[in-house]
From TrEMBL:
Residues 8-123, 141-259 form the VOC domain. This is Oxidoreductase. It comes from Actinacidiphila oryziradicis. InterPro entries: Glyas_Bleomycin-R_OHBP_Dase, Glyas_Fos-R_dOase_dom, GlyoxalaseI/FosfomycinResist, VOC_core. CDD domains: BphC5-RrK37_N_like.
Amino acid sequence: MTFQPITHLRHVDLAVPDFDKQRAFYGATWGLAEIGGDNGIALFAAEGSPEQYVVRIRRDRRKRMDLVAFGAANAADVDELATRLTAADVPVVSEPGAMDTPGGGYGFRFFDPDGRVVEVSAGVGTRAHRKIEEREAIPVRLSHCVVNSRNPERLRAFYERHLGFRLSDTLYSEHMGELMYFMRCSPVHHSFAIARGPHVSLHHASFEMRGVEEYMRGTGRALRAGTRMTWGPGRHTAGDNTFSYFHDPHGNTVEYTTELAILDEDTWHPGLHDVDDPITQDQWGTADPMSELVAKEQFNDPDVLFSAPPV
């Protein structure tokens, strides 16, 4: 049986020069709850999620994605994953051990083939959370994370082989080949995806809303606050989810979404979706047509690679 240690996406950690502006955005504008932090670190939770936090902001002179964090079922799977990665000569940043982040737990960090830091942990204490009410336009949870890679085929193979991710769907173009791989670690269509890009970077982080009404109200709040929308509102074909893409104050793309497909893994077969078909990108036809200019909005700045964050 294939080793499948990953259960879900935990959080995405970002470092930025203008800490105060970024902090204000993720709280007041984006609708996350600041739950703590000190010495240039702010932690943000989603009110509907049991995760201790879904976004970490850290002050740094350089903009970067510090890491992406995934959950595992138990400490034994964490240890087994670390052993397998070491045997495969994957660079390990920190050995498995007790974690000093909120909720504790047991985990470790390593570099994926692109040089980004990945954290895997188990046994993290849950946070008191609540049901998001009707018309309450704040994120329920962190939905998924998408990264840019110059070699998405290699990165896909790594996450499949070592972390047990499964391919749900692929976006392709007749002229450019395969452009994005949607990867799942549960019946949810994707919690991670890999896009073909000119450099390694964060493509976008996506936050799930209660429903379409709340998704549209959140989109409107962000627009009224002067947040730059780069694409949307619309509804994708792969994943069947809604989308509104914005830039945070440092140019990272963040998305409001809802209704991401839940798959029957016993019967699902990955599909190939042609990006030149307008229905692939937006079933509703309400967003601007996909173009090179729209695609570039998610390229982001080149990331800091093979360099672990200080915390």
